[in-house]
Amino acid sequence: MASIVLENITKKFGKVTALDGVNLQIDDGEFIVLLGPSGSGKTTLMYLIAGIYRPTSGRILFDGRDVTNLPPKERNVGLVFQNWALYPHMKVFDNIAFPLTLKKTDRNTIQQRVHEVASMLKIEALLERYPWQLSGGQQQRVAIARALVKQPQILLFDEPLSNLDALLRIGVRTELKRLQKDLKITSVYVTHDQAEALAIADRIAVINNGKLIQVGTPEEIYYKPRHTFVAGFVGNPPANLLNVEFDGTKLTIQTKTFQAPVELLQKISGRRRIVLGFRPEKGILLDRITENAVGIEVQIYEVESMGREQIVTVSIEQTMVKVLRPSEEKFQVGQRLFLCVDIKDLMLFDFDTNEALDVQ
Amino acid sequence: MSLGDVEVRSKSRQIFYSIILIAFSVPVIMAFSMLVLSSFANQMVTNFDFSKVRFTLRNWQLLFQGRIAITGGLRENIFLYLISTAIVALGVAIVTTLVGTLSGYAISRIRFKGRKFVLLMMLMLHALPGSILIVGVYFLYRLWMPTSLNALRYFSFFYVIVARAALEVPLSVWLMKGFFDLLPWEIEWSALVDGASRLKTWAKIMMPLIKPGVVAILIFGFLAGWQDIIYVRTFLIDKTLATFIESNLEAEMAYMPLLAAAATLYLLPTIFFYISSQKLLFKVYAGGIRR
User: Fold this and answer.
1) Interface ipTM
2) pLDDT tens, B240-263?
3) Closest of A9, A70, A67 to residue A34, by C-alpha
4) Which residues form the signal peptide (chain A) (predicted)?
5) Do A222 and A336 have their domain in common?
6) In chain B, positions 199-228, which contact chain A (CB-CB < 8 Å)?
């Protein structure tokens, strides 16, 4: 159990900068998810915490203690790898017991501790098997047991669910979250799956191109993205982002001009271009423009049913916008309607920096 | 011709390939079987005329009594030669394997300056035959050789093992590097995070996973030491089976069937290890790394 502080972490591999000046504080007992596309540096950041990599510059503190230059074995972290990295030549029991045998723990304690974690993860029946005799889900439990058996102060997960099939993933996700809450071990979880991140995290740290873009609770990340990247990465489908020109009185998307409430115009006064964003489920398709909303005429391009709801893709000239509507509403391809978004549901971003506008 | 599964060769082709392979092996098999037959005969078997050939165990008896082929009367300690041959072979095998696995691991897994250079030099060294290097190796021997004859005897064992192993090291390092390259980094990282040192990781995690490769270079090293004659003859005070047979061949009048028995004895480990390592090398990919 420990808090983690990452101070100004930069990591370079030769000429490639994998991480660039990352600052992050993780509280004791917190479940934090590092979210980003592949190649964003999220796994590198986790390996830095584990001690597998050393930062090019910056400091790492566990509970205020500088561990930047400590080797992995002196950090007391448990790590669950994406491919689980079980030792193929050892039985499940020996796999789980391996960290303890290295510490020269006596036989009885090893027996007891291994059986403890094995029963917690419901793999007691598998202890005498070899890893290749197990299913993916079972192998993963073994990997988690091996990480837990040494009673680490920090648990690290490197996309642990990505090798499991979709149905199993959701079940394991719930169990992982529960397990972490029960054990209260500070956990860092790396994933590229935004839904997984939203479901499991206390806080999410979004990383792109080696830079920390935003850190916040799942609600903050989802509803108050600080950057167009976060808005465009999180959510399924992700938020719509539209480049809008502004001449002081009216807004234009490509050549399509539309009106907006005064309240919105005041917020963006003085700007020539902005990025307008909104969540697909916040868009409404009507034959008129509602009050306190931005409305623009659109044409239905395609309708995809998802069972409970449907994704309606509409076009504003060449720009495609996705709107999530309940399946009860009926739309025809080619139909012309007004797309309305309440101004409280709009996200405003600076056109040049892509950062959120600080206007309320 | 009907098309079968991709991995199933058609029967006619299989037979065709087998015939070619057998045709190429016939001379070698003939030579070996003549040698083995001669070791059980009163004269060398050199053709298919068996009318004058009588089969007997006498050659083997004489061999183990330590009679040498030239005079037939003088006795030499054949068991001592067997033991020195085994010492040299085992020594070369162990040194080659230790150096090969450790440096193979380092070159595969640790980034250090001159890594590429070391690899290239190894390849160069491998390209040179041992007999070319022997002058330089001999000078080093003279430089370090102890003066007391008793000490020299032990030193010569040590020296011949290290010198002969040095010739095997490049190939084994390359081979081991290849094996270590195949192992996923995550398994090693996992061991490091679990609390193992680099050396422990090598010994407890990596080595068991590449066991087939380790056994293979162990066998290659053993056979190299067992078969060597040039280095043994130049440096070793004691005789090995190879130098024993060679010194007997120098004589004008030698009882050849006795030498055939010695040669057959000398061949046994080679044949045994080649057959067993063949199976092993096939297994490397089938059962080496499972995940």
Assistant:
1) 0.85
2) 989 888 887 776 677 888 888 989
3) A9
4) none
5) no
6) 200, 205, 208-209
For residue A10, which of A211, A206, A188 has the smallest C-alpha distance? A211
Last residue within a domain, chosen from A233, A250, A270:
A233
Handedness of CA A68, A70, A72, A75 (dihedral sign): negative
Q: For residue A323, give the H/E element and its range.
A: strand A319-326
Identify the pLDDT of residue B287. Answer: 44
Tokens, residue B148: 């007391």
Report the CATH number that the domain containing residue A152 is assigned in CATH. 3.40.50.300
Residues A78 and A11 in one domain: yes
Of B290, B216, B238, give the one whose Cα is nearest residue B85.
B238
A226 shares a domain with A267 = no
- d(Cα B240, Cα B79) in Å, to the nearest integer? 10
**In angstroms, what separates the C-alpha of A77 from chain B's closest C-alpha?**
7
* CA-based nearest residue to B159, from B139, B185, B132, B131: B139
Nearest to B190 among A81, A130, A150 (CB): A81
In sequence order, which residues have a C-beta less than 8 Å from that of residue A141 and are 6 or more positions away? A121, A122, A123
Query: A297 to each of A164, A241, A255, A275, A322, how far by Cα in Å?
Result: 44, 17, 12, 18, 14
Q: Is A164 within the bounds of a domain?
A: yes
Same domain flag for A77 and A95: yes
What percentage of chain B exceeds 90 in pLDDT?
Answer: 43
| Dist. CA A159–CA A219, nearest whole Å | 22
In this structure, the number of other CB atoms found within 10 A of the CB of residue B285 comes to: 10
Q: Phi and psi of B31, rounded to 5°?
A: -60, -45
Q: How many beta-carbon pairs below 8 A join chains A and B? A: 67
